[in-house]
């Protein structure tokens, strides 16, 4: 699969099969995240990979009571000390999400989560911040494509408000 095909095929998955991800597949996905660029190549982040059923279930209330958080195969929690590292985490998890599509898995970015609750459940130190959460697993659904805005609705050329075209 080409990258452009993975980009087009990626969907937010909110229903997962009850299926573990083999360790070698999970490590391939983590390697895709590891290879992502980061500021000054510091890789000043950590991703907690939650595969334990009980721990994932305990994260449901900390994740906006979204039940699929407890049903996914792995819940990924992006942690870094500084706010600017959140960008690096987003890049890393985007790499992982595109590789997941290629390997037949799905992901969903979690926008509704309580960082302090997540920290307490996972024992994340006080000096660290939870920036991003994402579900990962084998899809039990195949959502249809959603409409996207046109280029000229999203991009300006050379200065704000000048049309792309």
Using brief descriptors, characterize the structure shown.
165 residues, alpha+beta, NADH Oxidase, 4-stranded antiparallel β-sheet
Structure description:
By secondary structure, the protein is an alpha+beta fold. It has a single domain, classed as NADH Oxidase (3-Layer(aba) Sandwich), CATH 3.40.109.10. The chain has seven helices and four strands; from the N terminus they run ααβααβαβαβα. Helix 1 crosses helix 5. It is globular and about 50 Å long. The chain starts with a helix and ends in an 11-residue tail after the last helix.
Run of helices and strands:
HHEHHEHEHEH
Regions with little confidence, pLDDT below 50 for 5+ residues: none
The neighbouring-strand order within the major sheet is 1-2-4-3
Structural class: alpha+beta
Oligomer: single chain
- Which CATH architecture would you pick? 3-Layer(aba) Sandwich
Query: How large is the count of helical segments?
Result: 7
**Fraction of residues in β-strands:** 15-25%
Write down the overall geometry: globular
CA-to-CA gap between the ends?
Answer: 31 Å
* Overall CATH class: Alpha Beta
Major sheet: 4 strands, antiparallel
Count of distinct structural domains: 1
For this structure, what is the CATH homologous superfamily? NADH Oxidase
Q: Let me know the average pLDDT.
A: 95
- Estimated radius of gyration: 17 Å
Helix content: 25-40%
CATH topology: NADH Oxidase
Number of strands: 4
